Amino acid sequence: MFFGSLETGTNNALIYTLLANCRTQGLDPEDAYNTVTLLMKQKRPSNRLPP
């Protein structure tokens, strides 16, 4: 794969490894992300949410 720079390739390798490990353990990484995001939104005031 071509990522454009060594740092970008390293970062993507980390993300792909994390996703593969989640799937190996039977976890759905997208579902986990959505759950965490929704919980964070509940705990923060609406004017402090990330864009």
Description:
There is one protein chain. The protein is mainly α and 51 residues long. The protein has one domain. The protein is 67% helix and 0% strand. It is built from two helices and no strands. The protein has helices at residues 6-24, 29-43. The longest helix has 19 residues, at 6-24. It starts with 5 loop residues before the first helix and ends in an 8-residue tail after the last helix.
Spans where pLDDT lies below 50 across 5 or more residues: none
- The H-and-E topology, N to C, reads as HH
| Helix share bin | 55-70%
Number of domains: 1
Radius of gyration: 15 Å
**Broad shape:** flat
Number of helical segments with 4 or more residues: 2
Average pLDDT taken over every residue: 80
Strand content: under 5%
Distance between the termini: 30 Å
Total strand count, please? 0
Structural class: mainly alpha
Largest sheet: none
Give a quick set of tags describing it.
single chain, 51 residues, mainly alpha, 2 helices, 67% helix, flat
Helices and strands in order, then pairings?
Layout: H1 6-24, H2 29-43
Summed up:
The chain contains 2 helices and no strands. It is mainly alpha-helical.
